[in-house]
Amino acid sequence: MVTLNPIKKRSTEALALDQLRAAIVGGTLSAGARLTEQDLSTKLATSRATIRSALHHLVSEGLVVQVPYTGWMVISLTARDARELVSLRSSLECLAAESAAQSTDTTARAEFDRAFKALVAVAAARKPVAASAADAAFHRAMVLLSGHERLAQHYRLVEQQISVLIASANALLSDPKLLVGQHQPIYDAITKRDPIAAVVKVRAHITAEGDKLIAHLNTIEAATNAASTPTRKKTRL
User: Fold this and answer.
1) Domain range spanning residue 45?
2) 155 vs 140: CA distance, rounded Å
3) Helix axes 37-44 and 48-60, enclosed angle (nearest 10)
4) Spatial distance between the Cα atoms of 181 and 201, rounded to a whole number of angstroms
5) Same domain for 135 and 150
6) Is residue 123 part of a domain?
């Protein structure tokens, strides 16, 4: 028997927003890239008003900034941004992990299982962009499994910035398959319903990968600052 599902109608603005968000998180629109309404409206075959509305929404998600007299620009993740996101993410996801390990919601737990299996599959296929998306989806599934509605609401406010953080950290990996080893301990602890271990594993994962990214960004910023600092010639007495 064929199951009939409700037809989902989505506005042009929502579709444009989804495409722009995916392009930023996936790296198609690179960090610091200047965005123009005219160019984007041409590429997406929609109106400038639709693009403008989508860009305003992306500003609220922290993925785009509006620069006076310049226009729109994709965010550039700084070391400070990374430090703040890592600490905030750790607080939110550790609470989520503790609750998720104790959850009796079979539907949410099944979705969590599917999210982990999807991560394993794309990591094995060595698809970096898809692997980062699956990585973010795994952590989202953990938050939803927690059953903590207010936590989920706060997580959604920074979820897209966390996705950028995840993609940036994963870009430093030599092989997407390494993601399986990073997430297996978290999955095992939650599956075994061990809240203490779940918190420990989540915190260790977020801290370890976050520290690597912060160190990388610090190195880039130091090199940029050194290159922009004029050298003074010594005068002989």
Assistant:
1) 12-74
2) 9
3) 110
4) 12
5) yes
6) yes
Task: Assign residue 212 the CATH number of its domain.
Answer: 1.20.120.530
Contact at 8 Å (CB) between 93 and 202?
Answer: yes
* Whether residues 64 and 86 fall in one domain: no
- Residues facing 67 on adjacent strands: 71
Q: Are 8 and 149 in contact (CB under 8 A)?
A: no
> Which token pair is 96?
């989520």
* pLDDT tens, per residue, the chain with 237 residues: 445 555 456 788 889 999 999 999 888 898 889 999 999 999 999 999 999 999 999 999 999 999 887 889 999 999 999 999 999 999 999 999 999 999 999 999 999 999 999 999 999 999 999 999 999 999 999 999 999 999 999 999 999 999 999 999 999 999 999 999 999 999 999 999 999 999 999 999 999 999 999 999 999 999 988 887 666 655 555
Residue 234, domain member (yes or no): no
